[in-house]
Design a protein that fits this description.
Helix content is 47%, strand content 12%. It is of the alpha/beta class. The chain has one domain (7-247): NAD(P)-binding Rossmann-like Domain (Rossmann fold). Helix 1 crosses helix 6 (201-213) and helix 3 runs parallel beside helix 4 (97-126). The longest helix has 30 residues, at 97-126. Bound molecules: NADP nicotinamide-adenine-dinucleotide phosphate. Residues 11-12, 14-18, 37-39, 42, 60-62, 83-86, 106, 110, 138, 140, 183, 185-186, 188-191 line the site of NADP nicotinamide-adenine-dinucleotide phosphate.
Length: 248
């Protein structure tokens, strides 16, 4: 996928990885980025950096009306980056069911709802030729094996991986690529309190777009994910053992 002249929608673009994905899209030649967030004012500082190319839009991935309104404005979108995410649940028995459901609402159903909302625009874009339209799903290494300390969140990200495969089939028939990214720890608010190796979000964004430019569809965009993804391909149970050991 070539980002030159792409029109990119990024969910959760106000902070963390999403903000860097919006900036990296422009650095790679996108002509416009619809930077979306739940609160319009949270995008002010990002818009200030490139006011001619960044269009702020309000979008909550759990609210179908807000998705429909955003998709109407961003009807020229060629790439959708499903980045918005929530880590609100931990152990599957110790967390409330409500908090696990909330993670699924954002990470799983939100990803699907956003993709459905922008699919018509992406279909139009795909008619311009191969590699003209794509969905980029920000999953996680915990999509590949459950990290029990984050059991509910991991399950929501594993379901998002399964949805990515379903979308790869259904959207693939329409000429739209579905890219699945499996990052390890990223240095953002989401895991601020957790001790683990973390990649800077701007480095992660650059690595991800470099892999997409090479045509990769499953992307391990950092050292941890490269190791875990290779292990997953060899022996999925080894990933399970690795994460069980990490959980103690
Ligand atoms: N950090 C990590 O170690 C790590 C590792 C692997 C994968 N990831 C994934 O990377 C993505 C970005 O996470 P991050 O690390 O940048 O986390 P973050 O700093 O916590 O940012 C999360 C973003 O998602 C947005 N969001 C949450 N709920 C939303 C909703 N209902 N509708 C729209 N936007 C919503 C947040 O908006 P508000 O500001 O309004 O809350 C924020 O912009 C997520 O999908 C996450 O699961 C993160």
């Amino acid at each position: 996928m070539n980002m030159k002249d792409a029109v990119v929608v990024v969910t959760g673009a106000n902070r963390g990885l999403g903000r860097e994905l919006a900036k990296e899209s422009l650095a790679r030649g996108a002509k416009r980025v619809y930077a979306t967030a739940r609160k319009r004012e949270s995008l002010d500082s990002l818009v200030k950096e490139s006011p001619a190319a960044i269009v702020p839009l309000v979008l909550d991935v759990t609210d179908e009306r807000s998705l429909a309104a955003a998709a109407e404005v961003a009807s020229d979108a060629t790439v959708l980056v499903n980045n918005a995410g929530l880590l609100g649940s931990y152990g599957v028995l110790s967390s409330t069911l409500a908090s696990i459901r909330e993670d699924f609402e954002v990470n799983t159903f939100g990803l699907l709802a956003a993709t459905r909302a922008f699919a018509p625009a992406l279909e139009r874009a795909a008619k311009k030729g191969p590699k003209s339209a794509a969905v980029v799903n920000i999953l996680s290494v915990v999509s590949l094996g459950n990290l029990p300390g984050l059991g509910g969140y991991s399950a929501s990200k594993a379901a998002a991986w399964s949805l990515s495969q379903a979308l790869r089939y259904e959207l693939g028939k329409k000429g739209i690529d579905v890219i699945a990214a499996f990052p390890g720890g990223i240095d953002t608010d989401m895991v601020r309190a957790m001790e683990m190796p973390k990649t800077r979000p701007e480095v992660l964004a650059a690595n991800l777009f470099a892999a997409i430019a090479k045509g990769e569809l499953d992307v391990a965009p950092d050292a941890t994910s490269e190791e875990v993804y290779a292990e997953f391909v060899r022996d999925p149970r080894a990933v399970e053992r690795r994460f069980f050991t990490m959980a103690g």
